[in-house]
Amino acid sequence: MTEPILQVHSQSPAIAVITLNRPQKRNALSVDLIAQITAAVSSAGTDAARRVLILRGSGPVFCAGLDFSEVGQAAGATRSAEALAKMYAAIGNSPQVTIAAAHGAAMGGGAGLLAACDFVVAADDLKIAYPEVRRGLVAALVTCLLRRQLTDRAVRELILLGENIPASRALAMGLISRVVPANELFDAAIELATQACKGAPGAIARSKRLLDDLAARPLEEDLRRALDYHLAARESVEAAEGILAFREKREPKWGPRPGA
For the chain, what percentages of helix, strand and coil (3-state, to nearest 5) are there? Predict the structure, then answer.
């Protein structure tokens, strides 16, 4: 598998760009890709010369979510979930300003990448969804991120319905920062990054720590709590049926609510 591309923007050495580089799989988050994104974010975060980190996707979509060829493998569920939590924590705790430049589609765990960043610049063709409940799963880890940013009603709409929403609706919710024409996406992200570079780097890093300190619990503690919900759903009968139905391109056949 091709690794994500980490490069410094040619016109501004303060701006680092990570490109999800698995276009043949719609940048689906395999365990390997998750680990490589985490490593790239951590590497960029240790470079004092880098002030802003932009995440973008190659190919027709930003990120299709978890790699479903791995999700159904029980033996790898814990490893995958822990890697996902580590990736979100690395992005959320980065001392740099983080910007997602998203186009096409951002689904499930891929939409979680948007929620982990400080800002999201979206192409006007972007569709966002957290469809986990429709697969018998629980969007536990991304819920930790969404609850820090959106109203309770907005989070419930995203998590409990699992519908595709357009960029305009995501903007109204506050999930994304701005919407631009698709052909202007990267330029708009660079413009925002340039504005962020005008702030003092130490002040920005301390401001980000303050925002985390003012939350009810630190992000990493929330992610640890959410892992239990995530794994319980991944190992459930509902998840097995939901993932099989997704692969077979049919509606899932749900039984009665467990414990009812």
Answer: 50, 15, 35
Beta bridge partners of 222: none
- For residue 8, the surrounding DSSP H or E stretch is strand 5-8
For residue 211, the Cα-to-chain-centroid distance in whole angstroms is 19
Each residue's pLDDT tens digit, 137-164:
999 999 999 999 999 999 999 999 999 9
CATH: 3.40.47.10, 3.90.1150.10, 1.10.3520.10, 3.90.226.10. Which one for 5-182? 3.90.226.10
Kindly state the tokens that stand for 194.
Answer: 């340039």
Q: 132 an active-site residue?
A: yes
What is the pLDDT, as a whole number, of residue 80?
A: 83
Q: Which of 3, 82, 132, 157 is catalytic?
A: 132
Report how far apart, in Å, the C-alpha atoms of 139 and of each of 8, 62, 192 are. 33, 19, 29
Which tokens sit at 62?
């930003």
- Per-residue pLDDT band for 75 (boundaries 50, 70, 90) equals low
Q: Is the pLDDT of residue 76 over 70?
A: no
**pLDDT at position 190 over 60:** yes
Rounded Cα gap, residues 180 and 183, in angstroms: 8
95, 208 Cβ separation under 8 angstroms: yes
